[in-house]
Amino acid sequence: MLASSSSSLTKSIEDGIAPKMLSCGYIVGSYFLALMTIVLRDMDVLLSEGSSAGRMEFAR
């Protein structure tokens, strides 16, 4: 009796939390992906301006 009620409780907790964590992870992941895209694009611009200027900017 006690085991079945506790397992149903954990199941309801998992059903409630898992979708929230999934959507939160998706939002964070897409935000991180966008941030990395911007950073990589900026690095490409700096490196294409000239290797010496790009290296100075990268070191700073």
Low-confidence stretches: none
C-alpha geometry: rod-shaped
Which sheet architecture does the biggest sheet show? none
Total beta strands: 0
Backbone structural class: mainly alpha
The DSSP helix count reads 2
CA distance, first residue to last residue: 64 Å
Task: Provide the succession of SSEs.
Answer: HH
* Rounded radius of gyration (Å): 23 Å
What is the helix content?
over 70%
How confident overall, as mean pLDDT?
A: 73
> What percentage of amino acids are in beta strands?
under 5%
Keywords: Membrane, Transmembrane, Transmembrane helix
Transmembrane segments: 21-40
Mind explaining what this structure looks like?
The chain is mostly helical. It has a domain at 20-60. It is 95% helix and 0% strand. It is built from 2 helices and no strands. It has helices at residues 2-49, 51-59. The protein starts with a helix and ends with a helix. The chain crosses the membrane at residues 21-40. Keywords: Membrane, Transmembrane, Transmembrane helix.
Helices and strands in order:
Blueprint lengths: L1 H48 L1 H9 L1
Quick summary:
The chain contains 2 helices and no strands.
Q: Can you tag this structure with a few keywords?
A:
60 residues; mainly alpha; 95% helix; rod-shaped
